[in-house]
Design brief:
The protein has 263 residues and is mainly α. It is built from 10 helices and no strands.
Length: 263
């Protein structure tokens, strides 16, 4: 083509020819790039998104893996070993990204802490009674606490209890409350005050949080409680503490009664 052959001329003449090219040909490519750009800021490696999503996604992936392995007839020892690996991996992610969690830098007031403890205890009390058949989604797979000799594997139970009390609340609250609740309201979620999250964003995040659990109704009740703690205190430490109290009391009750089905 004539315009392509012009670039074989000297630089000065090439510059002249380029200036003479129709503006439409010059600006066409940048417009195409802009149109292909993603609308939502959900890019892999995003320093804001990944620290709050990837630990939770990893946790869920291990749950799916355990279910698949169980369906394939994997031995009990293999399934029991997944939880320590899962919780260690998630804890390592949280520690590695700890400097990214600006929502954990504030310190809640003493009344907010007391409220979180009380709410967490109430959620525990409701959790163990909201277990009717219609309040469950599917058939839960009870945590296998026994070793090959049939005795309770207490080191594994301790790992499970510590993971549920110390790691899971931080991981889940970072995802459900800090990220998803505010992201549903505003894509630049870190700049949004928790109290400004709307009713629709709260309802969707609470519903999804409930569906995540086998005891879906208890999960919805817990989601409402933790969301209210977050919206009122505007610090993520209150739902984390409430969540930790719930899981800690539940772990103690499970170990005391042997109701492993709740794990």
């Amino acid at each position: 083509m004539p315009r392509q052959s012009c670039f074989g001329i000297s630089n000065g003449k090439a510059d002249i020819v380029t200036l003479q090219q129709p503006p439409k040909r010059v600006s066409q490519q940048p417009h195409a790039t802009a149109a292909a750009a993603p609308v939502l800021p959900l890019r892999a490696g995003d320093r804001v998104l990944m620290p709050r999503v990837l630990p939770f996604a990893t946790f869920i992936a291990f749950i799916i893996l355990a279910d698949v392995l169980q369906r394939l007839g994997a031995p009990g020892n293999t399934l029991r070993s997944l939880y320590p690996i899962k919780i260690a991996l998630v804890a390592a992610m949280l520690l590695a990204w700890r400097r990214n969690y600006q929502e954990l830098r504030g310190v809640p007031s003493r009344p907010a802490l007391f409220a979180a403890v009380g709410v967490g205890a109430c959620v525990f009390a409701l959790w163990i009674v909201l277990d009717a058949q219609w309040m469950q989604a599917g058939t839960p797979n009870a945590f296998d606490a026994a070793g090959e000799d049939g005795r309770i594997d207490w080191p594994l139970v301790a790992v499970r209890a510590l993971g549920a009390t110390l790691v899971v609340p931080v991981m889940e609250e970072l995802f459900w409350r800090s990220f998803l609740l505010r992201w549903l309201q505003q894509r630049d979620f870190l700049s949004l005050r928790p109290a400004r999250a709307g009713l629709r964003a709260a309802a969707v995040s609470i519903l999804l949080f409930g569906i995540e659990h086998n005891l879906w109704l208890a999960g919805i009740v817990a989601g409402i409680a933790y969301t209210l703690l977050y919206l009122r205190s505007e610090t993520l430490w209150t739902p984390i503490l409430g969540h930790a109290v719930t899981n800690g009391l539940l772990a103690a009750w499970i170990m005391a009664t042997g109701n492993w089905i709740y794990w």
